[in-house]
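pinging the channel bc i need a second pair of eyes. not urgent but kinda urgent?? the chain im working w is below, pasted from the shared doc
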Amino acid sequence: MGLNVISNYAANVAHRNLVRTDMQASQSLAKLSSGTRVVSSKDDAASMAIGSRLSAEVSSLRQATVNAGQAVSMLQIADGAMSQVNDILIRMKTLSVQSASGLLSDTERGMLDTEFQALLDEVDRIAADTEFNGNQLVNGSSTTSTSLNSVTAAADNLINAADGFHSIQFTPAVGNAAFDVNYDSTTGVMTVQNLTTGESQGLDISGDVPVATNATLPIIFDDVGTTITLNSAFDPTVSISSTGGGYSAIGGGNTSDVLASTIEITTASGSGAQGLTSTILSIDAAAANASVLTIGAYSGAATVDLSTTGVKTAQLTDGTNTFNISFQVSTAFSNGDTGDLDINGLGAMVFGDTTTDSGTTTFTFKLGTGTVSQVDNVSLSVSSINNASLGLTAVGVGNQINAEAAVGAVSDAIDILNVARASIGAVQNRIEFASANLRISIENAESARSDILDLDVAQEMSNFTSKQVLMQAGVAMLAQANQMPQNLLQLLQG
């Protein structure tokens, strides 16, 4: 290659190598400062993908460990309540045995029964009051109504899902009951009345409504055992009112002798009254003692004796779903009487579904990172420990015969309680083993992620030092190359 002053080939080569060395040194600095060998996908796309999945798995496993700890804590609370109930049952058995002795008179037995009944009340109180994060643990499951009144009327005073009623939940103690719901938009008070017991409770919700979009508002009516959950469709400016006894009787026969204000409808199974296609109750008393009641799709499925006065209850079915209807007859029907009764006046009536088993409460704990329920979830049914579940309803020690029966009843209750506690203990031990396995999985997954992504600092530091030497040499050689054209100037000097 000839000597020239226009092109400096040596300087270009030195500059190119210097730029490459500087880039490599910068990459080493990025890795050293981040502590990972895969700073971006161009470093190692496959390792980055595997490492990201492992990081997500480790994070999920850590949360599953937290879930396991919370599950154990919850079970400990439930077991603690059962332990106290066990102590109460032991005392109750002592009282039963004492009362069954012939040495006592009924006066002394009455004193013992006072304590016995107080202990029964305490069992129910503990069952209802034992909670974890708002969930009752040992009082059985509550029931959410799936049959909000879907009947429409000319006067729109019925509760529908479209009115912003997300769900209505009943505690197990409520049983098969009908409820009347009213809302006064002027005062902001919502009132719920249990039409079976007559008990009523009103709460001021003006400070909580309207409900935000995509949110829900639970309103807990403790006195009547009901929780109504509203959503954003609820309009706090529109009142909801039951028509109270303003029912109209139409048609012939003795229909007017039905006191419509006592009518109650409660579901018994399935979706119940949600399937109603009519609000007209037809009564066919061709044979008064075996009258046929029909309403909507529930036709000719039940008979009731209307030949006598008093409260009557009939169960109607459409072949799949059933519901109960209760009313009072003030004047007996005669053979051949027929007629219809418009029951739109049920107004803001909602129906409680009583098919759910209230003897247990099921909890599902997420202890895995996948979606296979049999592998990633652990489910537990916690048995109720209230008096009904323990078989202690209508038990007392007020006389010797009852005391003898109480001895057996309390013994059986202790056995039922021990079975429930054993189930909790078994699941608690299982969850503790699962928690230990999760911690081991975290260690192994973290180790695998480290092998794939973490930087070998010593090796990378050696590489960075090498690049620093090359940079210093490159700068020096570029300076020398830039001096070479100046040597040609000596040829031009005369």
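so Confidence is low (pLDDT under 50) at residues 143-158, 243-257, 266-272, 344-357. and The radius of gyration is 39 Å. — does that match what u expected or am i reading it wrong
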